[in-house]
Oxygen sensor histidine kinase NreB (Pedobacter antarcticus 4BY), 650 residues
Amino acid sequence: MYRQLGQIKNQEEKAVGLLDLSFFWSDHNVTKALHYISEAKNLLGTKIQTDYYGGLIAFYTASVYFDKDPDKAKDLYMEAERLLQKVDRAQELKAVRYRARIWGSYGALLQREDKANEYVDILLDKVIPLAEQTKDVTLLGINYQNVAMNLMNLQEYAKAAQYYRKALSLLREQANASEERLTLYVNAARNALYAKEYHQSKMMLDTASVIANLIPNSIYVPMYHTVAGSYHAAVKNFEKAHEHLSEGLITAKILKNDELISTLLYDQFKVYQQNKQHVKAKGKLLEVLPYVEKTSSLANKQMVYYHLATTTVSLNQYQEAVKWYEAYKVVTDSLFTNKNRAQILELERKYQTTEKEKELLKIKSQHQEQSLALQKNRSIAIIFASLCTLLFVLGFTWYRTQKSKKRLLEQKELLLQEELKNHRQKSTIHQYNAMLQGEEKERSRLARDLHDGLGGMLASVKMKLSAVTDNMGLQRVDAVAIGDLQSIISQLDQSVNELRRVSHNLMPDSLLYRGLEDAIRDLCKSMTQSCMSIDFQSFRLRGDYSHLFLMSVYRIVQELLTNALKHSEADQVWVQCSEENDILHLSVEDNGKGFKQSTENVNNIGMGLSNIRNRIALLNGHFEIDTYPGKGSSFHVQIPMYEQQNVPNS
């Protein structure tokens, strides 16, 4: 393009060509762009003082500062608009074309400030009417597309589709507008994808593919692959999605466009995330991170840090998740601060403007009649009251918004902490569960060893002693010696009975073979004493409970009855066990001396209550104690049965 400019003889035409060249370099090399503007000024000489060329210089200079200094760019765009509005008739049509571009660029800067609605208004009220005056189909189609893109960003997909159709009707047959048509079809496909109109999106992408092959070096080719990848991910064709995104990434790297590279890497993350491939998803986020961190966009950093936190949680990398969540919080706080600072500056500007207006009104009022002065003062009061109301409304809105966002942030933090806490609790319960199962297995082993080993030995000794006694009786041995041997045999009988009782307590046969109801009934009978009666009642108990559940409930009852026997001094104990509405209800009550509920009293009772609480916690149950000195004691347990499907059998 620069070589072709050398063949142009007309200085003004050459200068405009240099300005167009600067517009191209404004996206790639600011120094080159400013250099070509300087060359154009030298060629124009004193003509840059005219409204037309002065407006052009302001417009192209604003384009250079579009990314580097948006505020300066906006001022230059408005200077260009002011100058181009005053051109003579000979240059009016060309000026109108530039004015349409000026307002489009100015609106794009507003869009970057999250003022998308204002940008749409500018397009509809300024840009499109100016484009219609030029009768330039391509320019009009481009701006219909700009309206559609902003409506799409505002999630007004149906309205956006209407303007995309208008743009298509104008640009579809424009063979010399391949770049514009590629942009249009890609964005229309994206809008259809957002609206979940996948067939329509596929049609648009097919046409875009044909155009992309005609202009392979277009900066919008990577965007085509981005949308194509998103489409294939949406229809669950993940292999094709990765193929498009990888090809787009290669093209973006060739173009050395960091913004496109980060966009494509983030889209790859979304595909992996959608396919629940969390390890690869995290890898893509870490590739995106350097591009995001070297930009000034806090919103992009906030998004990447948040996804890194949630992805590492999915991978159970909780310590790393906390680190990313802290980074997310810092960026979020900065966003709130920047937004609040901008609102405060805007309010201050409005307030200062109002104060200046008040001063002017005050000076004028000094030279007018008293009645007019009173009227002016009344107007000032109304303006001031309106301003105060506006400040109050904006301040209150800001306060409520900040409070709501802060609450949301706290809730997210609490959820993350709760998830970490649950993880630790599950680990603790798993360890305690293993301990209880080990304890019950050891009890079972001891019961078998006592019953089968020591019990058999004692029975054998008894039988041999009985045989010796019988022989001594036949041989008429001393009656005293026979009596001593019979006393020993009686003591052996008692020892065997005691051994059976201990073995039964360690692992009751009734629990293993007849179920919970019979086991508790046998327990109550075995623990009944002459000084203490135990009454047992049961309702609707099933026979298919898990072994660990049976043992846990049995041990809870056993511990409670042992405590009653040792400490309560009661003569009557009532035990009730029932199941209702998927909840097992267990209560043990006595008419004993009771106790005062405190840490000291609980410790005096011993480890029994501690073991009971631990067993109930393992079963996700609820434990209540109702007691008072001299009033007896009641112990109530509720265990949800639907939780027991997660309790493994021993």
Q: What stands out?
A: The longest helix spans residues 370-474.
